[in-house]
């Protein structure tokens, strides 16, 4: 098959081969019918619950040991700094080598780090600088893990079920976000955060075992990309010339710096505003995840992905955060956080789907690594920034900034797209020959 004109300037890659349908409600979880994905998703749910437990415990331990919201932001910075600097290398690894093997190695390393943190915490020797160092090394692991994880989903389910699987991955992440923080909050109050770290170490082990159980013969494998000069810049050029990748990435950059530092702000609200302690912090995280789970499930119902829809979801999230800054009590604030979680996941999931479905499978690892670099690297900058703002301006004003900037960016990008008549990826359910195509935006 001859590549479409937009692909000709890149090195040889396989043509996009996507078949997307809008299933009835009974098919909302259709990708789980595939054995390999079912195994992967089941282990991933346990892993995500444990990961959320570790994140909440880590942030709370730092806050207890230091008494500083800025210190919590620095922890976020240390964890996401490698993504900001090195994530494209992870994309090259994902395109060149076995995604399954990369995930096994990265999850094994994450398990070792969680074990180390658990031992230090349970023996009473954990200090803030330990958490900084371990968070940084874990960030290095994420550089290899995330691009491979994103691309591996396509190998598990194939292009026909890709959108559904992406949405279910988001749902799984948010289910973990509902359960993990609540469990972690109880553990912290009952026995301390060390057992949350131990639970994550066990979950990483289970993930490695599950990857061993996946049948290689049933994977939809793409041939590895051969080593060559200029592969990273090839990915950059690809992103720059495709509107359905470039604009979601630009929005994700602003969203990550300001909007995705919400965990830092929630710690400040729980500790300084509502005096709710670790249990309240876990509850607020759970409420955000509850809304996000609903948003992830709702994203499975969209048959058409449009740039304007992605921008509208990001802008809505920003507006909701600004409203949250006015909440007079924790009940009202918690209710608004459910809505914030819904809007956040609508943006994150639809942007992820749009980027993946717009990307040629042979270059997808590099493209996704650049997208993840923006998304996670932005948090490295945003964590300390929002922590500093919360300490010096007050958490309410920091929340206004956290919401106002994504809302403003969504408006500006929306105006640019409207002026340029930018492109949109559409899905025609009535056409078997050309179910996915890119057309000028008409409205």
UniProtKB/TrEMBL annotation:
One of its GO terms (cellular component) is plasma membrane. SUPFAM superfamilies: MFS general substrate transporter (SSF103473). Transmembrane segments: none annotated. The keyword Cell membrane applies. CDD domains: MFS_MefA_like. The keyword NAD does not apply. It is found in: Cell membrane. PROSITE patterns: MFS. InterPro entries: MFS_dom, MFS_trans_sf, TM_effector. Coiled coil: none annotated. PANTHER family: INTEGRAL MEMBRANE EFFLUX PROTEIN-RELATED (PTHR23513), STAPHYLOFERRIN A TRANSPORTER (PTHR23513:SF11). This is MFS transporter. The lineage of its organism: Bacteria, Bacillati, Actinomycetota, Actinomycetes, Micrococcales.
């Amino acid at each position: 098959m001859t590549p479409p004109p937009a692909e000709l300037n890149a090195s040889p890659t396989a043509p996009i081969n996507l078949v997307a349908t809008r299933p009835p409600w009974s098919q909302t979880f259709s990708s789980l019918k595939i054995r390999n994905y079912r195994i992967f998703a089941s282990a991933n749910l346990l892993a995500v619950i444990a990961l959320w437990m570790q994140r909440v415990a880590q942030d709370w331990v730092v806050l207890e040991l230091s008494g500083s919201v800025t210190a919590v932001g620095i922890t976020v910075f240390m964890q996401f700094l490698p993504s900001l600097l090195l994530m494209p290398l992870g994309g090259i690894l994902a395109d060149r080598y076995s995604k399954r093997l990369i995930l096994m190695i990265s999850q094994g390393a994450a398990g070792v780090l969680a074990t180390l943190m658990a031992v230090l915490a349970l023996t009473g020797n954990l200090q803030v600088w330990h958490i900084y160092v371990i968070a940084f090394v874990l960030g290095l692991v994420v550089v290899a893990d995330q691009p491979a994880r994103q691309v591996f989903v396509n190998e598990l389910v194939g292009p026909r079920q890709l959108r559904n699987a992406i949405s279910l991955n988001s749902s799984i992440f948010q289910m973990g976000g509902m359960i993990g923080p609540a469990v972690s909050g109880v553990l912290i109050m009952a026995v301390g955060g060390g057992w949350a770290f131990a639970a994550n170490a066990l979950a990483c082990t289970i993930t490695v075992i599950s990857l061993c159980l996946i049948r290689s013969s049933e994977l939809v494998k793409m041939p590895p990309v051969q080593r060559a000069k200029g592969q990273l810049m090839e990915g950059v050029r690809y992103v720059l010339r495709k509107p359905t990748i470039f604009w979601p990435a630009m929005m994700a950059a602003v969203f990550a710096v300001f909007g995705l530092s919400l965990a830092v702000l929630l710690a400040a609200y729980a500790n300084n505003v509502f005096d709710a302690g670790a249990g309240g912090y876990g509850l607020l995280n759970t409420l955000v995840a509850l809304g996000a789970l609903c948003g992830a499930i709702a994203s499975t119902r969209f048959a058409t992905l449009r740039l304007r829809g992605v921008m509208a979801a990001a802008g809505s999230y920003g507006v909701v955060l600004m409203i949250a800054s006015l909440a007079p009590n924790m009940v009202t604030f918690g209710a608004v956080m459910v809505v914030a979680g819904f809007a956040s996941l609508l943006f994150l999931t639809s942007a992820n789907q749009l980027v993946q479905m717009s990307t040629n499978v042979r270059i997808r690892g590099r493209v996704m690594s650049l997208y993840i670099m923006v998304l996670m690297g932005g948090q490295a900058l945003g964590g300390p920034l929002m922590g500093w703002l919360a300490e010096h301006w007050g958490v309410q004003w920091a929340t206004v900034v956290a919401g106002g900037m994504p809302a403003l960016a969504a408006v500006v990008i929306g105006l640019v797209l409207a002026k340029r008549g930018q492109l949109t990826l559409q899905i025609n359910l009535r056409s078997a020959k050309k179910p996915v195509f890119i057309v000028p935006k008409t409205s």
